[in-house]
Design brief:
By secondary structure, this protein is mostly helical. It contains 9 helices and no strands. It has a domain of 120 residues: AhpD-like (Up-down Bundle), CATH 1.20.1290. Helices cover 61% and strands 0% of the residues.
Length: 187
Amino acid sequence: MSTTTGSTLQIHTYETAPEASKPLLEKSKKSFGYVPNLHGALAEAPGLLDAYQTIHKLFLNSSFDKDELTVVWLTINVEHECHYCVPAHTAIAKAMKVDDTIIEALRNKTTLPTPKLEALRSMTLAVLRNRGVVSHEEIASFYAAGFNQRHLLDIILGLSQKIISNYTNHIAETPLDEAFKRYDWNK
């Protein structure tokens, strides 16, 4: 049975989802052991769920390591004040064995443990806040921290994924899954 409790959009289960979304929800269940509520919300639009899953896979295979992936994801989630994705990506970061110091600094907007990670957060925020209009100086500073052109473009890939999830969660008021509740987050 699908739910709308606490949500402005229907959160589909496998049984209630449009036919075109069912194979995608099977992938979600295989990956997570259940269908996350975000995926249930996205299922109403099979193309959006497919895009989200595809971009997620592409971003996982980007130029970033696990710490850097987490910096991009959580920086965007916190900036967008996403009640669902901050806890979800906290759980994902912990499963990826990202150091708690990094996770907590991102969740609380405090200084990251290395200048390189801080440079990544700064560039991610610059791209996000300025809609891609970043200065030559910002780019030079980012490159001087040890990043390159591919890293810069991979931030845009991560941002693409997070726009799908963060915006959907704002509209849907997606309820947190049990697995994420212990990492609840508020601005």
